[in-house]
């Protein structure tokens, strides 16, 4: 069964450092998302990506965040200068039918900023 | 706008039933139900798109009211494996101003005891 994969599973970084979180969405999917979940809280939308550009972003997704689909299979989330409050689980998701079908979530990357 | 889930937590004995509600002040395009076990990614349960729709099977089912502002998830004859946090994710307009972004409720923690 196709699945969304994410690497690394856990990333520890120092405040101010840059991190890149990687995702491989399901191959025939067209719509890609990043969500985050701070420990014990709800899942929050960060950004959606379609046709090689950002289609929507939340207030959380400020200038320190960026996304890319560099090679047609990987989908990356970059945090330029991490802050303590960026510590969270980051989930990538993808879907092939906008709004009417399941969003498939990856297993997540746990980011810890020290 | 974040949907509101109720109750915040439910404790059951195996075999008991539970209902989890998800309400919005605006009419929704879709409601997606997910279950998340501790430390894992959300797992899709079902999606509802039409007012008055009911979906699922005997054990886990959901409804979407006519005005499309409330959905309920029904867990019947609960099993230990049902334990986890249940989230509703709501979608607004497909296409146009929304690219499938899901806004999640705060979650309902379900604990099933033997």
How would you describe this structure to a colleague?
Chain A is mainly beta and 114 residues long. Chain A is 0% helix and 50% strand. Chain A has strands spanning 5-7, 10-13, 19-24, 31-37, 43-50, 53-57, 65-68, 75-79, 88-95, 104-105, 109-113. In chain A, the strands form two sheets. In chain A, strands 2, 4, 5, 6, 9, 10 and 11 form a seven-stranded mixed sheet that branches. In chain A, strands 1-3-8-7 form a four-stranded antiparallel sheet, with no helix packed on it. Chain A starts with a strand and ends with a strand. Chain B is mainly β and 114 residues long. Chain B has a single domain, classed as Immunoglobulins (Immunoglobulin-like). Chain B contains no helices and eleven strands. Chain B has strands at residues 4-6, 9-13, 18-23, 30-36, 43-48, 54-56, 60-64, 70-75, 84-91, 103-104, 108-113. In chain B, strands 2, 4, 5, 9, 10 and 11 form a six-stranded mixed sheet that branches. In chain B, strands 1-3-8-7-6 form a five-stranded antiparallel sheet, with no helix packed on it. The mean pLDDT of chain B is 90. The A-B interface holds A 31, 33, 35, 41-45, 48, 50, 55-56, 58, 91, 95, 98-108 and B 2, 29-30, 32, 34, 40-44, 47, 49, 87, 89, 91, 94-95, 98-107.
